[in-house]
Design brief:
Largest sheet: 5 strands, mixed
Number of helices: 1
Number of domains: 2
Number of strands: 9
Order of helices and strands: HEEEEEEEEE
Strand content: 35-45%
């Protein structure tokens, strides 16, 4: 009788541990359905640039999913009020005014995949267009 009781206790313990492990995995997946995605736009001297629009494009590079504009600190976040964006692949594209160009060697359409639990910051460097004499 004592052996049967030990086996039942072992089975109960294993079942309980398995349920906790499954519950932990389920919580982890549910907790990260969105990620935070910010941009930082600076000039070539490292100063923040306000009022620069950025589009968040789907992987087709045509469909604009979200749009944001930098504040005085040169930063902006896509869907901050909604808790972030879906975790999937995107491209971030700056929409520059005639006063600004991308800095030399700086690409546009940067590929990103936000992740849950942290903030992904996409940095851009731009330069003022020189006035025509």
């Amino acid at each position: 009788m004592r052996l049967f009781s030990s086996k039942r206790m072992l089975a109960s313990t294993l079942l309980g541990a398995s349920l906790l492990m499954v519950a932990g995995c389920s919580l982890d997946v549910a907790m990260y359905t969105s990620g935070r995605l910010q941009i930082l736009v600076e000039d070539t001297a490292g100063n923040p640039v306000p009022n620069i629009r950025a589009d968040l494009l789907l992987e087709d590079k045509i469909t604009v999913w979200r749009t944001t504009t930098t504040g005085t600190d040169g930063r902006a976040e896509f869907d901050r009020d909604a808790g972030g964006v879906a975790i999937q692949g995107y491209y971030v594209r700056l929409i520059l005014t005639p006063d600004w160009n991308l800095a030399q060697g700086e690409p546009n359409d940067k590929a990103v995949i936000p992740n849950g639990g942290s903030v992904l910051v996409v940095r851009f460097r731009i330069e003022k267009v020189a006035p025509v004499p």
